[in-house]
Specification:
Order of helices and strands: HHHEEEEEHEEHEHHEEEEE
Helix content: 25-40%
Radius of gyration: 21 Å
Mean pLDDT: 87
CATH architecture of the largest domain: Alpha-Beta Complex
Strand content: 15-25%
Oligomer: single chain
Number of strands: 13
Number of helices: 7
Number of domains: 2
Length: 361
């Protein structure tokens, strides 16, 4: 009996120690964010003027491109370029909220070519998309700390059942965005969220800041992921180069999960990584590929027939399933492709499903 009591006390002490460690981590994360926000405010005394300049430049780029052509040559031409001398402009509504990067207007070819690695029919027909507006995109996926701020203020319930890497055909009880199947900190991307959870967060963020936050459309997601690239991956055509740019299924994950199809390179993480640990893309955005899948606004359609060509979301089709983009820490190389698209039922929570926010300017 005494041994039983001792074991119970020991477990309670360990639980308290773990809770204290998580609290210390949250405090450290907030202090770091506050310091970074203060530095941002000092470096950007007039961000609205910079936004206006980028919007003007974006409009000029789109106007100079002329109408979207119907010829294949127009489909295959290089995307509009953004001057390399223009450093990404960051917008930030406060240390508790996601830092944003202003992305210029432009155009790109959406979808994959026949013969491209792992080409799928639902990635066709390839079509030219012109995004005639500048908009802001989360520098990173929404983090555990950012989502915790929302939950603490609103009492929002994101459930306590989530599909995890522990396996099984049913969601696992006691697993949620706070407690996935792996250790995480406040600056990890938040997972175990469904489409409704993502919508609830952007609605709260819009109300708190007075700015129009939302989820990305599928076209915007491919545009910001490609960031001017026309290759299979944002970094090129070699899947083995992924470990410098994206947290996907790699040799580290393969050692833990032998059933995975994985790259032979090492990215240093079996599960999700803290945000911003890999190289940014040409727009200055981190983790647009890998780490967690991102929920998008679009309803599922089997092909791009009739898809918008202006960057807006496709809101017709099967809206019980929404699009996801980007791949995750468990994604095989084929799932990290720029053109790759999947869909999930809106109510499902999986430990590598999160989201990134956009902000209309």
């Amino acid at each position: 009996m005494e041994l039983g009591r001792l074991a119970a006390v020991s477990i309670a002490v360990l639980a308290l120690a773990a809770a204290a460690a998580r609290a210390d981590d949250a405090v450290g994360w907030l202090k770091e964010r506050q310091a970074r926000f203060a530095a941002y405010r000092e470096a950007h005394p007039n961000p609205d003027a910079e936004v206006a300049r980028i919007k003007t430049r974006s409009a000029a780029l789109v106007a100079a491109a002329g109408p979207i052509g119907a010829l294949q040559a127009a489909v295959d031409r290089a995307p509009l370029s953004w001057p390399a001398s223009d450093k990404p402009l960051q917008l930030w509504d406060g240390a508790d909220y996601p830092p944003m990067i202003v992305v210029p207007a432009g155009e790109f070819t959406m979808g994959s070519k026949a013969g491209e690695y792992d080409h799928r029919a639902w990635e066709t027909p390839r079509h030219r998309v012109r995004i005639g507006y500048a908009f802001a995109v989360g520098e990173y996926p929404v983090t555990v700390g950012e989502f915790a701020r929302f939950v603490a203020e609103t009492g929002y319930d994101a459930g306590d059942r989530c599909f995890t890497s522990e396996g099984g055909e049913q969601p696992r009880s006691g697993r949620d965005w706070r407690r996935p199947s792996f250790e995480q900190t406040s600056d990890h991307p938040v997972g175990c969220l469904n489409f409704g959870d993502a919508l609830a967060y952007v609605a709260w963020l819009s109300k708190k800041t007075g700015h129009a936050y939302r989820l990305l459309s599928e076209a915007e997601a491919e545009y910001v992921n490609r960031a001017g690239s026309t290759t299979v991956y944002p970094w090129g055509d070699d899947p083995a180069a992924a470990c410098a740019y994206a947290n996907g299924a790699d040799a580290d994950a393969l050692a833990r999960f032998p059933q995975l199809t994985a790259n032979t390179c090492h990215d240093g993480y079996v599960f999700a990584s803290p945000v911003g640990r890999f190289k940014p893309n040409a727009f200055g955005l981190y983790d647009t590929t890998g780490n967690v899948w991102s929920w998008l606004s679009d309803c599922w359609n089997e092909t791009y027939d009739g898809a918008p060509s202006d960057g807006s979301a496709s809101l017709g089709g099967d809206c019980s399933q929404r699009l996801m983009r980007g791949g995750s820490w468990s994604a095989r190389p084929a799932l990290l492709r720029s053109a790759l698209r999947i869909r999930y039922p809106v109510g499902v929570r999986v430990d590598d499903h999160g989201f990134r926010v956009a902000r209309t300017l």
